[in-house]
Amino acid sequence: MSKQGYVYSSTPNQAIYIPPGQGTNVVIAQQQPNVVTRSSHGLFGQLGRELNNLGRTISREVDWTAAEINKSLATTAQGRVLPLFQTGNQLQLVSRVTGRSLEILQGPSGLMLDGLGQDHAPNAVWTVVNEGNNQVRLHNNNNYLTVVNGNTMVINMPPGQMHGVETKFQLYERGAFVHLESMKERGRHLGILPGGQLKPALATGKEDHSMFGVRLIYSPYAATGGK
């Protein structure tokens, strides 16, 4: 059977084209493509699974490497703000979202914190203990900032008492601001809400709520020195 120069063969997926005036047949074979899906069994299915596993492994390694680089940068950075955190310096942490300072208050059931402290107010001034690598402890009259079970609070640590890592924070400089990340509960940061309330550390990342300007109130070092 022919139509407009074609002869349809009984062979599946084949058509025979006869150019006008010629007796030579040219066979054009049309084959259906093979489609391999993730559910295919055998070699291709196994290969797909191995490639997926490899992709997940590479992604985890990239995330881990990025985190380690960020930690390394944090412990070696020296910007405009970080040098203010020298042992013995007294400073205020000014919340970016309230424009007021982190302060310690007497609440109904004990000491509490908020982000509404006044300039130079004694209860809004924090003394620095710098332990190197941009890692610090901050206290007001031996009441130390800490993160416990995802919540920021203060605990009293009399002079000479041994400290654990729960009162230590890693500093990250960001322009004219710093973030304070708990060394005990990594990924959790000191944060203030726009109304001045504390934001739970477990819900606070490196964001506007965790950004603080630093106002130096007192330093025992000369303007050109320090340690």
Strand residues, percent: 35-45%
Question: What is the terminal separation in angstroms?
Answer: 98 Å
Q: Please compute the radius of gyration using only Cα atoms.
A: 33 Å
User: Which structural category do the helix and sheet elements fall into?
Assistant: alpha+beta
Q: What count of helical segments does DSSP give? A: 1
* Total domain modules: 3
In which range does the helix fraction lie? 10-25%
Give the biggest sheet: 8 strands, antiparallel
CATH architecture of the largest domain: Trefoil
- Envelope shape: globular
Model regions low in confidence, pLDDT < 50 over at least 5 residues: 1-18, 23-40, 68-76
CATH class of the largest domain: Mainly Beta
Element order, helices and strands? EEEEHEEEEEEEEEEEE
- CATH topology value of the largest domain: Trefoil (Acidic Fibroblast Growth Factor, subunit A)
Structural features, described:
Residues 1-18, 23-40 and 68-76 have low confidence and may be disordered. Helix content is 15%, strand content 35%. A hairpin with a 2-residue loop joins β6 and β7 (110-117). The radius of gyration is 33 Å and the shape is globular. The protein folds into three domains: 1-32, no CATH class; 37-76; 82-218, Trefoil (Acidic Fibroblast Growth Factor, subunit A) (Trefoil). The relative contact order is 0.13. It has one helix spanning 43-76, and strands spanning 2-3, 6-8, 14-17, 26-29, 90-95, 101-107, 110-117, 126-130, 135-140, 143-148, 151-156, 169-174, 177-182, 191-192, 198-199, 212-218. With 227 residues, the chain is α+β, with helices and mostly antiparallel strands. The strands form four sheets. Strands 5, 8, 9, 10, 11, 12, 13 and 16 form an eight-stranded antiparallel sheet that branches. Strands 1-2-3-4 form a four-stranded antiparallel sheet, with no helix packed on it. The chain has one helix and 16 strands.
